[in-house]
């Protein structure tokens, strides 16, 4: 039985170093392409859970026990609103693909009267602060679709500024004053916008 040998040429000095450098470059390029591909998949093709898991690793993002994610863009000052307060907010809501489904420059909203994720986020904010929040579908509308602009099981992303808030007691005082005609806008005010015309 004979064994055929194939002569192997000796490696030139320095070639091994070049080989390792070349291999390292190829691996770095492959890793970069894999990362870009993963990021693209997370944004477009990943599940909401995968998207949130990846987003949780971003700098400054805090994930609460419920799964809500919040990032402080600009810190506010003072106390945070409670579930019984009314907040004055500026916001823009988008889907994962960047589609804007709602926006408002200044709107009052009862903190406890919005979807659970938004309510929780408001209670973590401070007056004058700017925040970015990611609301998992189960803390938003879940399998329900409130309209064609929001498909079922949508992950909601909001940029929110907490402009101000008032307590339930302050809101009740304002409503009483309006009813008594002590401030414009109450039913006793003759020129109240949306109220009855003067003389009626």
Automatic annotation (TrEMBL):
One Pfam family assigned to this protein is FKBP_N
Which GO terms fall under molecular function for this chain's record? Answer: peptidyl-prolyl cis-trans isomerase activity
Q: Which GO terms describe its biological process?
A: protein folding
Q: Extract the InterPro entries matched here.
A: PPIase_dom_sf, PPIase_FKBP_dom, PPIase_FKBP_N
Query: What is the recorded name of this protein?
Result: Peptidyl-prolyl cis-trans isomerase
Key word Isomerase present? yes
Low complexity composition-biased segments: 172-182
């Amino acid at each position: 039985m004979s064994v055929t040998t194939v002569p192997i040429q000796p490696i030139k000095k320095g070639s091994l170093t070049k080989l390792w450098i070349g291999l390292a470059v190829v691996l770095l390029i492959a890793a970069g392409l894999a990362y870009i591909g993963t990021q693209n998949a997370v944004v477009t093709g990943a599940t909401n859970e995968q998207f949130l898991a990846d987003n949780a690793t971003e700098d400054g993002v805090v994930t609460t026990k419920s799964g809500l994610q919040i990032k402080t863009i600009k810190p506010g000052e003072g106390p945070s609103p409670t579930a019984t307060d009314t907040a004055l907010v500026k916001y823009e809501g988008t889907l994962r693909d960047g589609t804007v489904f709602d926006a408002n420059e200044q709107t009052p909203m009862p903190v406890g009267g919005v979807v659970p994720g938004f309510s929780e986020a408001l209670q973590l904010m401070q007056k004058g602060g700017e925040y970015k929040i990611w609301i998992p579908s189960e803390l938003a509308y879940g399998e329900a679709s409130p309209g064609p602009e929001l498909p079922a099981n949508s992950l909601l992303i909001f940029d929110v500024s907490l402009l101000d808030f008032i307590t339930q007691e302050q809101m009740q005082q304002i409503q009483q004053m309006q009813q008594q005609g002590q401030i414009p806008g109450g039913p006793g005010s003759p020129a109240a916008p949306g109220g009855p015309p003067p003389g009626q």
